[in-house]
Amino acid sequence: MYPLNTLTVSSHQFDESRKVTYLSIIIPAHNEAQRLPDTLRAIDAFISSQSYSVEVLVVENASVDETAQVVRSYGKGHQHVSLLQEKIRGKGRAVRRGMLAAKGEFRFMCDADLSMSIEQLVRFLPPQSTDFDVAIGSREVSGAVRFHEPVFTHIRGRVFSNLVKLFALPDFEDTQCGFKCFTAQAALDLFSVQKLDGMSFDVEVLYIARKREYRIVEVPVDWHFHRETRVRMMQDSLGMLLDILALRRNWLDGKYTRTR
Ligand SMILES: Nc1nc2c(ncn2[C@@H]2O[C@H](COP(=O)(O)OP(=O)(O)O)[C@@H](O)[C@H]2O)c(=O)[nH]1
Ligand SMILES: [Mg+2]
Questions:
Q1: Which pLDDT tens digit goes with each residue over 33-50?
Q2: Is 259 part of any domain?
Q3: 177 CB near ligand 1 (under 6 Å)
Q4: Do the domain assignments include residue 35?
Q5: CA of 43 to the centre of ligand 2 (A)
Q6: CATH no. for residue 70?
Q7: Ligand 1 proximity of 61 Cβ (cutoff 6 Å)
Q8: Assigned domain for 258 exists
Q9: In which domain, by residue range, is 179 found?
């Protein structure tokens, strides 16, 4: 691990020969051609105010819009931005690909809609968060604020959270926030055995992390509801419930045994 104060050059002056990437920002993107340009610009503005090296990996799969082209063209003028692609749909599949391909000492997954402003990323890194393997954004812990969330959406989310608590992770109030930071070691260890390709991969990753006694911290976030969603209400919700019920069985069956 490289403490912040050992990397004193700005990201633009960064000495490539040291080959140290401090932070990887991994953005899963499905049909995000509209939202991504603003997001990439906001991330770049944030990066330019930080004193360490950052790479941005956008992982696209199965989009029917211009997501890939948007990222390719943005990446031409911004060499720290790369596009990775998978053929088959699934947020879990995309995040796994990004986490395993990343080079950063810290690997941060980040929803394309920036429902949490990117400036809050500093809350997930030293010196604000220390002694962790996994730092998860939470909209429920003390200090978190939700803006403009419709009541029904909130209730649906809470029902899901309570099912997660009951069947898999009793200690966490919010496993689904799209902003989570992993140390390189935790990312490689967890995502190399994690299997779920869809929206419930967060629960699976945290379940394995808990079983392996990783240090998991919850980071309060200010989170803004965005109506536009890639979640398919019936299909994804049902799939997520079945996935959660399968987790403990998978663990008992040794399906998460380390491969290296
Ligand atoms: N690569 C990829 N990203 C996905 C997929 N489904 C959702 N996402 C991304 O996951 C993030 C969260 O999606 P969003 O629609 O904001 O979910 P919500 O906030 O829960 O309604 C966004 O960056 C989406 O583009 C998928 O199948 N593949
Ligand atoms: Mg969203």
A1: 999 999 999 999 999 999
A2: no
A3: no
A4: yes
A5: 16
A6: 3.90.550.10
A7: yes
A8: no
A9: 9-252
